[in-house]
Amino acid sequence: MKLRNTVAAVFFVAASILSTRAAAFGPADYVYVPAVAYGEREIDFKAGTRKFSDEPRESAASLGFGYGLTQFWFTELYVKYKRENGNGSAFDAFEFENKFQLTQPGQYPVDVGFIVEIERPQLRSEGYEVKVGPLFQTEFGKTQLNANLLLQRNYRAEQSAGLQLGYQWQVKYRWRQAFEIGAQGFGDVGRLSHIAPRDEQTHLLGPAVFGKCLLGGRHAITYNAAFLFDAGEAKHSKTFRTQVEYEF
User: What percent of the chain stands above pLDDT 90?
Assistant: First the structure.
């Protein structure tokens, strides 16, 4: 009961502060996991590229530094870049990400966390982007499953689009620590109060690989990468995304 009340309270507070901007996923976005490592520091690099059949290629990248402040709170600051419309790479935004671990790993059948992400785009007309949502993870033998629900809005933006709902999922088979296989998916379904028609939604999914290479002590390199296809009939796109972290 205590866990249920905590999750409900956090979700209610987060949802009450949201109300604009589409939850569109960028080509460098990644799947959040609820685990937090106290005292761990990391340098995090993410990159991705996406090509629609009738539009120019879009690419994005980010570089961040994160730290496990407590046993349940991990915070990270990113600098983000993008390249689109045939132009060169340019600064896109600063991002402040905070992840909270609400349960101990293995304490319940499903591990629960929560993400709070604040982004300040370079274009002031886009305001401040806020993204929040619960994170879920469970395991069956060597298989790990993740599912996340995300709400997103922009404050002080010139245009508003209502409270938007997105999701992420991931399945991973732990074959070997240095190389694991699975799949990932990302989606946007429109406003929380009014789900968009099927041809206006975005659903990306595809195969993924994961791994962790131990370097001694707390030092390690972890990675994941995925090749994603648009599952919709109206849109046709291909996305390649990757993430590499140096943990120490």
Answer: 67
- Report the largest interatomic distance among the alpha carbons of the chain, rounded to a whole angstrom: 53
**Average pLDDT of the segment spanning 184-198:** 87
Token reading at 109 = 């059948």
Spacing of C-alpha 10 from chain mean position:
19
Buried residues in 110-127 as b, exposed as e (16+ CB within 10 A):
ebbbbbbbebebeeeebb
Work out the average pLDDT over 79-99: 92
List CB contacts of 164: < 8 A, sequence separation 6 or more.
21, 22, 23, 151, 152, 153, 188, 190, 191, 192
Q: Which helix (H) or strand (E) holds 248?
A: none
d(CA 90, CA 161): 26
Q: Does pTM surpass 0.90?
A: no
Residue 94's nearest CA partner among 75, 76, 82, 77 is 77
